[in-house]
């Protein structure tokens, strides 16, 4: 919890010694705190908000946020109710597939669910070229991975480009995207990065399938994504990293990293920055082999955090 210590019931006799001690302690802490990117950043920089002291406006646009789902069991049947839970502006929330269950965000994919059955929305964030986010995810027991699908939270660069609209990234300089997919058409299911960017090859996002992290059902994983956009339209100096670790592990496994990507060829910094995050959880690909055939299947999310980085 984010704690705001209150000085109460202090007498004139002991107020100033206590205040001086607090100032000394705070100064020492500030001198020693290191906010550089490392595995401990996520556990120390942002804690769960205190409802009595959290002043963030509902449906606001935030550059940093922790989102837990400790609201009790409830369906999320509207964009407004989703915004109240996320404490952040949301666009395009898909109703009917999401609920809070056992303090987790549960997304249920119907049997034979294609790209039209699942979650696809955007969270508005403060316009910035550098972000990091992470989230916990678990596939239900005996989950039918089928061929694969989009998973969890990711970045929209500029206007955001997905859905096979490669020409918007390559020719029209509208931006790109950095998301996560799962694949199940192998001996062991796995996660991997899925991106659209200025210099991409092919008609769909580059999937970098040789960069992967093996997973299984009924086990919690933490996915962490880091992004820095290219500093000008012509420079391929953008950065991206995808990391994953299993619950209980201290260190992440680096799945993919690059420091030479041109996310957008737009001369406008705003069209190269991140202004929204995707929440994409659905099966597909567009053909039937991507569809699940073993009844409704659920994926659980928790502990979403995002923050700007240096």
UniProtKB/TrEMBL annotation:
Positions of the Polysaccharide lyase domain: 127-303
Designated name of the protein: Polysaccharide lyase 14 domain-containing protein
PANTHER family the record matches: DISAGGREGATASE RELATED REPEAT PROTEIN, PTHR40124
Source organism superkingdom: Bacteria
Region of interest (Disordered), residue spans: 41-62
Transmembrane annotation, as ranges: none
Organism placement in taxonomy: Bacteria, Pseudomonadati, Bacteroidota, Flavobacteriia, Flavobacteriales
InterPro entries with a match to the protein in the record: Polysacc_lyase_14
